[in-house]
Design goal:
heterodimer; A: alpha+beta; Uridine Diphospho-n-acetylenolpyruvylglucosamine Reductase, domain 2; Uridine Diphospho-n-acetylenolpyruvylglucosamine Reductase, domain 3; Alpha-Beta Plaits; 7-stranded antiparallel sheet; 18 helices; globular; B: alpha+beta; 3 domains; 5-stranded antiparallel sheet; 4-stranded antiparallel sheet; disordered N terminus; oxidoreductase activity (chain A); FAD-binding protein (chain A); flavoprotein (chain A); FAD-bd_PCMH-like_sf (chain A)
Chain lengths: ~475, ~375
């Protein structure tokens, strides 16, 4: 069924599995290591559910020191380690191999320090994204990155994938809100990087770790920048009769000197699904934008008026600005239920390419043409302000060959993103899903230096070894590591 | 190189005209083990490696490649003068939000600041507090490493997690990992108005309390500095927004005597703050110390006991210390933070950057060796 290959499991490691499990159990508190197939089933895939594989064992540490102990044992046995947060990756970033041990951060759940004077929060990385902001609510602060999976996803996973969200147009993504980490290297050494100060003065190793997809270290604690909550925020909904005009509206808003906190885009396929599922009163048209602005009542009114002027020049089908909390919720309701609504339509692949904002109209047109070519429907729902697209390719997993066709269509869309000056992935990561497309964006030398860096942190290539880099490209590195 | 430069450095200068020339030159220098001083426009030659045999500069790699105001994106060759970048953006009502400083006043240098130099040194001014540092606005880089490999990383879009983020690593690596040839940066709208609240006769402790309160408000304070009993807070935005924000802050601090400075006068003031003009007339050593904001008053007291003066930026998060104290004394006083020597004064110092703890030091050295296997790029500038 699957088209993405993983390396053949190492027979030596499979044979040693009982000893590996025993060594982990001996060294860690009871209940930390699970290896019963019934229990490890929950860890055999992430949100890219087309690919599954049970690992040798899953380790669920409660402290950094326990992570270090587990890492040391895995290094001693030369067993690959798959770091895992909540398993919400859409790119297969947390997919195990049969010869691997999963180290998950979900029991690292402590809030360690809240310091509003210096504007940071320090947490263990198994806390969920949403719970960080919840902790700060009473203090009048919040943590800005807000990926759609924020109810479930962990800070560890956010750091690994440099997660963004709807509000990153104004507040930046994880790397812009991460001040420091405590992490564990493959030899079990515990390292502090950065801290509650702005910039370290040395090489930006923190910037390198963020978005490294579990290739370099396991992050167990994080110091996060916190931001004062705005006085208020209000969305508006703008409908257009063509995708191109909606794209043009996005560029004109940004060009005007306004930076809304969010600009979300939904196309007609998505709107129809939402209509059927969430019973919203969105207009029936080719494309809808949700634009959110924030500030005081006066600031909000002023920004809405300026955006109305910009939109009016483009003859929108509808322009609606929220007047109160209920209307705000009504405007956001459809967008928030978009992925659930799409799920009702059948199976889908969710892509994550980013394109320059100016190339949105052309890219949307080409995605439509490719949809006809492949005979598969596509829905577009994405963060338009920063060009991070999430085309959802609809297919039937039970129809022979459809997954393969959907994957081929997805690959074409991602190549298109690169061709127009964008990139393969904005916030989901490369994982296994886009691994073999890396050669489209990067030359052999561009990838070689990245793999050289992995060598520095993980000379034995134990951390997530068959991901991010195309297998044939990483083969010499992995072979050399296994021989040494 | 400017023949009048006070600073002695290797006199032979190579300024490649394109990536191919640069790559060939570095491959050759690598093969022959020739140590190089890496420079942009030469405004910080004081920082360069002392035992280099030649200077390699990116100043001939000039020109804006792409500027799309509607996409908030600028791509420029590394040697493009910062002034040209800023003018181009200003014509479209935009700016580099991280407000890079000009080091010429402080260092008595006479080169031309380049955008590549800004990125290589992660140069970030007062607005770093609110908008982030240069590294936060860097979208992608092209560079040539110490063995002549031509490499690109990142791109031109704001959301990008494709492969490892080498752009961040290059930013602030001071030429020790490679020579930048092109940088892509996020641009932002320039505020219509800016207003500065001036607090007089406040102690640093009081100022830091004011800063912490102001920075906990939603009024997006974009500057918070202190010097000799005065504190300044900056707010920006479209006209009525800036006025609203200033009014709210005045109400919050109604116990204090506050004057307000507007627009051009305010901009000139923050230009001086950005360039740390208060220490431009001095030739004493100058330190840039990054610290937890609440620890700034204690640090300032210890530094003042050593003699000299402090200027506080980033709401306490950045302490500039100008004084003749020995490196060891400054580092000891600043042990809770990270001290970088910006101007060495009369006594040449070899330890410009703070020494890192075990693993970070080891990883940094190994990364430098990966990018620069022969150790020819600004050798020993940031450590072995």
């Amino acid at each position: 069924m699957s088209t993405i290959a993983m390396p053949k499991p190492d027979a030596r490691i499979l044979a040693e599995a009982p000893q590996i499990i025993a060594a982990l159990r001996d060294a860690l508190p009871a209940g930390t290591v699970i290896s019963d197939p019934e229990e490890t089933r929950a860890y055999e895939c992430d949100a890219l559910t087309a690919y599954r594989c049970p690992p040798i064992a899953v380790v669920l540490p409660r402290t950094t020191e326990e992570v270090a102990t587990a890492m040391r044992i895995c290094q001693r046995f030369s067993v690959p380690v798959v770091p895992r947060g909540a398993g919400t990756s859409l790119a297969g970033g947390a997919l195990p191999t049969a010869d691997s041990v999963v180290i998950a951060t979900i029991r690292l759940r402590e809030i360690l320090e809240i310091d509003t004077t210096n504007r940071f929060i320090r947490v263990q990385t198994g806390v969920t994204n949403l719970s960080v902001s919840a902790e700060l609510e009473a203090e009048g602060f919040f943590y800005a990155p807000d990926p759609s999976s924020q109810l479930a996803c962990t800070i560890a996973g956010n750091i690994a994938m440099n997660s963004g969200g709807a509000h990153c147009l104004k507040y930046g993504v994880t790397t812009n809100n991460l001040m420091g980490v405590r992490c564990v290297l493959t030899d079990g050494e515990i390292v502090e990087v950065g801290g509650p100060f702005m910039d370290s003065g040395g090489l930006d190793i923190l910037g390198l770790l963020c978005g490294s997809e579990g290739q370099l270290a396991i992050v167990t604690e994080a110091t996060l920048r916190i931001v004062p909550k705005p006085e208020d925020a209000r969305p508006m909904l703008i409908g257009f009769d063509s995708a191109e005009t909606a794209g043009e509206c996005v560029a004109r808003i940004i060009r005007s000197g306004l930076i809304p906190v969010a600009i979300e885009y939904m196309d007609d396929v998505c709107l129809r699904a939402i209509e059927a599922f969430a019973k919203t009163d969105y207009p029936k048209c080719a494309a809808v934008l949700i634009v959110e602005v924030e500030g005081s009542q006066g600031e909000i009114a002023h920004q809405i008026e300026r955006i109305r002027e910009i939109a009016d020049e483009l003859s929108p089908v509808e322009f609606r600005s929220s007047r109160n909390k209920d209307e705000s919720l009504a405007i956001w309701k459809g967008r928030k239920s978009a992925f659930g609504a799409m799920g009702r339509l059948g199976d889908y692949l969710c892509l994550d390419g980013t394109v320059p904002v100016s190339k949105l109209p052309y890219t949307l047109k080409r995605i439509g043409e490719l949809s006809k070519h492949y005979g598969l429907e596509v829905a577009n729902v994405f963060h338009a302000g920063d060009g991070n697209m999430h085309p959802l390719i609809l297919f039937n997993a039970n129809a022979p060959g459809e997954l393969e066709r959907a994957e081929a269509y997805g690959a074409d869309i991602l190549r298109l993103c690169v061709d127009v000056g964008g990139c393969l992935t904005g916030e989901h990561g490369v994982g296994i899903e886009k691994r073999d497309l890396m050669s489209k964006q990067y030359s052999a030398e561009d990838m070689a230096i990245q793999m050289d860096i992995k060598d520095v942190f993980d000379p034995d290539w134990l951390l997530n070894p068959a991901k991010v880099f195309p297998l044939d490209v990483s083969q010499p590195y992995r072979d050399r590591a296994s021989r040494s | 190189m400017n023949p009048n430069s006070k600073i002695n450095g290797p006199t032979e200068v190579f300024s490649p005209n394109d990536d191919a020339e640069l790559s060939a030159f570095l491959a050759d220098s690598y093969a022959r083990g020739i140590p190089l001083r890496i420079a942009g426009g030469g405004t910080r030659l004081d920082l360069g490696a002392l035992n280099a045999q030649q200077t390699l500069t990116s100043r001939a790699l000039t020109g804006i490649v792409t500027y799309e105001p509607g996409a908030l994106t600028l791509i420029a060759r590394a040697g493009t003068p910062l002034e040209e970048v800023e003018q181009t953006l200003a014509e479209e009502g935009q700016a580099l939000a991280f407000e890079p400083m000009d080091h010429r006043g402080l260092l008595g240098s006479s080169g031309v600041p380049t955008i590549g130099g800004v990125v290589a040194a992660n140069v970030s001014g007062p607005r770093r507090l609110q908008a982030g540092a240069c590294r936060d606005h860097l979208l992608g880089v092209r560079f040539v490493d110490g063995s002549g490999r031509k490499i690109k990383n990142g791109g031109r879009v704001m959301k990008n997690v494709t492969g490892l983020d080498l752009s961040k690593l290059m930013c602030g690596s001071f030429g020790t990992l490679g020579v930048l040839t092109e940088v892509a940066l996020k641009t932002l709208p320039r505020a219509e108005r800016q207003l500065t609240l001036v607090f007089s006769k406040v102690s640093l402790q009081e100022a830091c309390t004011i800063f912490a309160s102001a920075l906990a408000t939603p009024y997006e304070v974009s500057g918070a500095v202190y010097h000799q009993e005065s504190a300044w807070l900056r707010v920006e935005g479209f006209a009525q927004q800036a006025a609203y924000r200033a009014d709210r802050l005045k109400a919050l601090f109604r116990e204090n005597q506050i004057d307000v400075i507007a627009d051009e006068e305010s901009r000139a003031l923050w230009r001086d703050f950005k360039n740390v003009e208060v220490f431009a007339q001095s030739s004493e050593p100058l330190w840039r110390i990054l610290i937890k904001p609440s620890e700034a008053p204690a640090l300032a007291r210890s530094l003042q006991l050593l003699g000299g003066d402090v200027f506080i930026d980033w709401g306490g998060g950045l302490v500039w210390y100008c004084g003749s104290a020995q490196s060891a004394e400054v580092r000891s006083a600043a042990s809770a933070g990270r001290a970088v020597l910006i101007r060495q004064g009369a006594r040449p110092a070899s330890d410009r950057f703070p020494e890192d703890a075990g693993a970070i030091s080891r990883l940094s050295a190994a990364l430098r060796k990966t990018f620069d296997p022969a150790g020819i790029l600004n050798p020993k500038l940031m450590g072995d």
